[in-house]
């Protein structure tokens, strides 16, 4: 088995509403202005495309409520598809970063379910796992003001604290599978730009 892809891969995770997608858009812009290519692949987008086309869901926050076996099957397919798309999209793979915007834990009706089980970790062979954290009270506020999303099942301080705690352990478990580094980045209230700068310095290390 090849140890790494031709391009560096970063998996970015964190509790829903912590600000992953927001911070990553800032990172992408900063990388671009530094002359680097970066593509963001959102795991939820891949799951949604397939399951919406089959008429099983209408929006992304319904995905985690589907029967788990359906999610398991599409999770596996999505990871393979993402890595194949990445290779097609990149102009200069060794000078680019591929970022997977996803979750280590998904809250399903059956219980907590791993977003990056072993077979998915081996598909990505990530160089680094970036865990974005924030104050639980801030995450709750961000979820509540973000009215385009339905994150009620994550909207409690207890759940957020428990998930942030579990995420640290799981990040290291996944990292051990393929030898990824783990970087914890704090996304302070009103300071997404600082979090983005921290991630840019990690990514520069991957491409320089
Ligand atoms: P999900 O996992 O559910 O996709 P996410 O981690 O990608 O969530 P975002 O959608 O990026 O979270 O952000 C959630 C909300 O928090 C958005 O309204 C965003 O503008 C806001 N937000 C992100 N970072 C900060 C920050 N540092 N300070 C204040 N608000 C923030
Ligand atoms: P997001 O927009 O990142 O909150 O993702 C939306 C939804 O996509 C999540 O609530 C999950 O249902 C699904 N999803 C995201 N990442 C994964 C993953 N690694 N495995 C399975 N489902 C995922
Ligand atoms: Mg997001």
In brief:
The chain is an alpha/beta fold. Helix content is 49%, strand content 18%. β4 (105-108) and β5 (111-114) form a beta hairpin.
Show the helix and strand layout.
Layout: E1 9-13, H1 20-33, E2 37-42, H2 43-53, H3 68-89, E3 96-101, E4 105-108, E5 111-114, H4 118-124, E6 128-133, H5 136-145, H6 157-178, E7 181-186, H7 192-207
Parallel strand pairs: 1-3, 1-6, 2-3, 6-7
Antiparallel strand pairs: 4-5
Bound molecules: adenosine-5'-triphosphate, adenosine monophosphate and magnesium ion.
Write up what this structure looks like.
By secondary structure, the chain is of the alpha/beta class. It is built from 7 helices and 7 strands, in the order βαβααβββαβααβα. Strands 2-3-1-6-7 form a 5-stranded parallel beta sheet, with helices on both faces. The model has no long low-confidence stretch (mean pLDDT 96). It binds adenosine-5'-triphosphate (ATP), adenosine monophosphate and magnesium ion. Adenosine-5'-triphosphate binds at residues 14, 16-22, 142, 145-146, 149, 151, 187-192. The site of magnesium ion has 3 residues, from α1.
Labels describing this entry:
18% strand, globular, alpha/beta, 208 residues, 7 helices, Rossmann fold, binds magnesium ion, two-stranded antiparallel ribbon, binds adenosine monophosphate, binds adenosine-5'-triphosphate
């Amino acid at each position: 088995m090849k140890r790494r892809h031709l391009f560096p891969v970063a998996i970015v995770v964190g509790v829903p509403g912590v600000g992953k997608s927001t911070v990553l858009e800032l990172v992408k812009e900063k990388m671009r202005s530094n002359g680097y290519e970066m593509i963001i692949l959102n795991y939820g987008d891949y799951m949604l495309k397939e399951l919406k086309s089959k008429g099983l869901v209408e929006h992304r926050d319904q995905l985690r409520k589907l029967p788990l076996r359906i999610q398991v099957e599409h999770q596996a397919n999505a990871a393979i598809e993402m890595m194949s798309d990445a290779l097609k999209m990149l102009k200069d793979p060794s000078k680019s970063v591929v970022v997977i915007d996803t979750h280590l834990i998904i809250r399903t009706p059956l219980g907590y379910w791993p977003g990056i089980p072993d077979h998915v970790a081996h598909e990505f062979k990530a160089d680094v796992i970036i865990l974005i954290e924030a104050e639980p009270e801030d995450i709750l506020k961000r979820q509540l003001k973000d009215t385009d999303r339905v994150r009620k099942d994550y909207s409690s301080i207890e759940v957020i604290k428990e998930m942030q705690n579990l995420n640290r352990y799981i990040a290291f478990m996944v990292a051990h599978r393929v030898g990824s580094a783990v970087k914890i980045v704090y996304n302070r209230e009103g300071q997404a730009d600082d979090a983005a700068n921290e991630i840019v310095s990690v990514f520069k290390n991957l491409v320089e």
